[in-house]
Amino acid sequence: MNHIQWVELVIFIVLFVAVTVLGFVASRWKAGGSLDHLDEWGLGGRKFGSWITWFLLGGDLYTAYTFVAVPALVFSAGALGMYALPYTVVVYPIVLLPALRMWSVSRSRGYVTPADFVRGRFSSPTLALLIAITGIVATMPYIALQLVGLEAVLRTMGINGSGIVGHLPLLVAFLILALYTYQSGLRAPALIAFVKDILIYIVIIVAIIYLPSKLGGWGHIFDSAKETLAKPSPTTGKPAGSILLNSSNQLQYATLALGSALALFLYPHSLTSVLASRGRNVIKRNMVALPAYSFVLGLLALLGYVAISAGVKPLTNNATGKPDGNTIVPLLFDSQFANWFAGIAFAAIGIGALVPAAIMSIAAANLWTRNIYKEYLRKNATPQQEAKQAKLASLVVKLGAVLVIILIDPQFSIDLQLIGGVLILQTLPAVAIALYTRWFHKAGLIAGWIVGMGWGLIMLYGIPNPANGKLHFGGSALAMGNLSIFGWHPFAGTGLDAVQIYPGFVALVANIVVAAVVSVIARALKWNPGVDQTAPEDYHADEHDKDLRPIGAH
Predict the structure, then answer these.
(1) Which of 64, 65, 322, 393 could disulfide-pair with 145, CB 3.0 to 4.6 Å?
(2) Which contiguous run of DSSP H or E holds residue 161?
(3) pLDDT of residue 63
(4) pTM of this prediction?
(5) CA nearest to 136, candidates 401, 328, 444, 498
(6) Alpha-carbon distance 490 to 474, whole Å?
(7) Which sequence ranges are marked TM in the entry (predicted)?
């Protein structure tokens, strides 16, 4: 650990200790019942108001990895990295009505996870199990990516090593996170999110005003970025990117943004934050107010161009010997800010890793407990046994994420997250569309899930990345000329060969088509559709309805 930035490190530690105290204190914050109940531990008692939900969702959706990866993508690829901005703008009007219905039926029926809803809607333990497994698999690398963001900050401060000893600060940070999450449940990240988001807002506002004035203004910054991105890459011989989209990546940009928007609230941690709110009005207010975070994200993305203008060079990844783009923003702050303010910025990113990691681990634990443990291993589990199982599962999930970072190349986590986005998108028919219609037969949804998953993985596997020499899982851009349907290339020779598209979107279309065809066949053959355990009034229930079942009722 050479050249440690002691001022930055001390400020980072002080703020980290402060949020640790908040994490343990949170167990008594807004406590209305025993934390030995999944509704209290895993959903905060379902009574978070508008402000708490706003900070919780903001801390959940705009993660530490978002704050390092989006500018890093803009730094390396230019305008394509801006896809995160339209996707986090259009997501809220898309999600508003489904989120309200999911909250209502979950509150009425005591559902804790999206797989609970699928189980009740289609009377299909198998379909619910597939949804639960998909959610857990898609969430695990997301947690690991928070560690990638935290580690980028630690490396910038001079804490740079390998093996168990080199990763000791990371281990300590997540041991503390595991302990206060175990004790306080969802209340811990909800309370810490206040600190995290306030720090993020301060840092980004200062950065977006101060740095351009220091580097010659936005005109100079954009000119520098345009010139640098246009230079041929030494590995591919082609320009790395552009500050404007071109004809080949416009479709990819649009489908990636739309696909990501459709997927965002399918992730179990996003729905956990929604279900923790106390009413439909809280959700409505948040869907209106959350784009404020998107505005900040847009400002943050511009820091990728600022880093180009400032001449920032990423640190080398110890495992691969290649530049680590995730260090771009921390290095920019380290080189351009005073040490004390860089320390605050690093603390904001570090705390920004803890909040979503806690929520994600809780969401994965809820899925394991309700849809695997209780469904298949202990059907008569008491609320106390459920809560204990969820607490233990959350520890295992965090441990798994840490081991991935320590034992495996962090790039593997990024690859897995790329896969995870495609996978979670395949749950849309069973989770989101099913909120409005039960026309799809459970057999059709299972068949669609299998096709969407399989084809999505096949397409991702076939995408190379010449820039880093990867032959498979090299990105999220599929050339339409390479799009194959049982060996048939429908777009080959059509002039669209070089046009790129997001494979997750293609897989989703195939998923829905197959689900519809199999549903028609199943209904024609009069296969048993199962008994719908939900009622029409469940989808419109609000917090004032006197007929709501007790929380936790099945």
Answers:
(1) 65
(2) none
(3) 79
(4) 0.91
(5) 401
(6) 23
(7) 6-27, 48-74, 80-100, 127-144, 164-182, 189-211, 253-276, 288-308, 340-369, 390-408, 414-436, 443-463, 501-522
